[in-house]
Structures are given as structure tokens and as C-alpha cells.
UniProtKB/TrEMBL annotation:
InterPro entries: UvdE, Xyl_isomerase-like_sf. PANTHER family: UV-DAMAGE ENDONUCLEASE. SUPFAM superfamilies: Xylose isomerase-like. Keywords: DNA damage, DNA excision, DNA repair, Endonuclease, Hydrolase, Nuclease. GO terms for molecular function: endonuclease activity; hydrolase activity. This is UV damage endonuclease UvdE. The keyword Ion transport does not apply. One of its GO terms (biological process) is nucleotide-excision repair.
Amino acid sequence: MIRLGYACISVKNKNNPNKKTTVAQVNKLEPAARLKKLRQVMQTNFFNLMDLLAYNVEHRIFLYRLPSEFVPLATHPVTADWNWAEEFAWDFRKAGEYIRKHNIRVTAHSGHYSILNTDKPSVLESTIADFSYHARVFDLLGLDDNSVLVTHVGGVYEDRSAALDRFAANFEQLPAEVKRRLVVENDDVSFTMVEVLELCERIGVPMVLDIHHHMCLSNGEDWVEYLPRIIATWGNRTPKIHISSPKSEDDFRAHADNIDPDQFLSYMTALSDYDLDVMLECKNKDDALLTLRRNLEKRGFKGEAAMK
């Protein structure tokens, strides 16, 4: 079975769990008012998360990427004295119960500033803090190891081999709760599918194949030939891949608003042999998913399960 999902923001349902505040805004407030502001933002995000999860279930969408800003300023020193995990323990428990009841897979993607293969200690420290935050959210929700945190390798730093070695070395510094959730995706400018696959096999973590990124950056390899090895990195977990369509020939790296159904179907010969989750990365988010689903059904596929 193949399940489709989308990232972070619904364009059809306006209640999205990505409300935030800024350091500048909260620093203008007295401590009591600051806490009140942070709590209000997080309460809104929990309300919106529950509403959005219900919307996803109604539309048979069981793969969803949680926005990184779900807990406002979670890794910033300005919130160091705020025990958000304890204050919102009931909310985390209830959301987790709903997610598990409906077999929803919730994942996350680290931000651009989280770079595990950095050569700067301060960046490594902030990266570990960011990864730990995401892992803590999933742990508080009571989610299993299929709730993964996706990251890229990082920069080349003028030495590809050394950059990959540094990722592997820094990975060993991660807390166990992060290691069990971290997965690595090939990118479109720095590290190819093969390089990321070899790194994942080396350190024992799953690899997320991004087919569009592979189309942007490769040495001519056929991703289909490497698919069994990529799937094997997931062990007993459900593999996850990313699919998007290029915006145009001139702006090939950018994501299109929607998914090209013919292009998507061209991948099915290889992908339909597996049970896996497909994250659609496109500007129109859930609307693009529902549009793709309708287009697939017109071509004879009655929902994702029928692709098997």
C-alpha cells in the first residue's frame, strides 16, 4: 500500500498548527505577560492541530509533517524557564491518543540552520538542541519510531569525504532519543542519493529518497536500481520517500504547485512493489494531494491502496 501525505500547512483548512511569535515580541513583555503570550500561541497550535488531524482523517490523509514551530521558540534561551512539556502534558497525551487511534504517521523536517556536519561547535550545539526538541515532541505524543525527523547531510565544506565523516562522527554525539528518529535525505545541491545511501548504511539509519532531488543532482544513476538498498535501511519501519514535480525547465529545482500525475504514475512500476509512505512536497499542499488522488482515480486507481 502507498499512502500520500503533505507538509505542515493545509490550504483547504485554515486552522494550521504553525502559529508563532518572535523573540523581539516576547522580549518586550514582562515575564508574566511573556509566559501568557507563549501559552496562548501553543494553545492555539494544539487546537489547530486537533482540527487539522480531524480534517486529514476525514479526507483519508494519514501522513502529515508537523511544523517545526509547533512549540513557540522551544529551543531559544528566552523560553529556558518555561516548562511547556509539563504544562501541556494533557494536550500532548490527547493528541497522541488521536494520532495512534487513527494510525496517522506524523513526521518532521529540521530547519535549514540545523547542520549536523558543521565544523562550528556553536552550530553543532544548536543543531543537537533542535533535533532533541523534535524528538521530545514525538516522545510526548507517545509516537513510535515511524515518527521520524528528516535532515540533510549539510555542507560540502570543500571536502566531500571529510564532510561525510564529520556527519558520522557528530551523529555519535546525539542523544539516544534523537538517534532512534533521525533519517537522512538526499539533497539537490550537495550530496547525491548514492552518497547519502552509503552514509546511512554506514551509521545505521534510514534514508529518505527524494526523487526530485535525485533528478537535480546525480551522477546518472537510476534510482530504481538502488531502491531495494534504500528500502532495506528502514528495517521493520515503513519506508518514506519524497516526491515533487519541478516548477519548470528553467526553474527545475523549485517545487511546482501540484504533482504531475503522469510523472507520478511513471514511478509506480517501481514503488508499488512496496508498502511505503510518500510525502508530496508542493506549493498547494493538501489541495495538490486531493487533486492528484482524483487524477489517479480517473486513470483507474481507486485511492492509494489500489496502487499496490
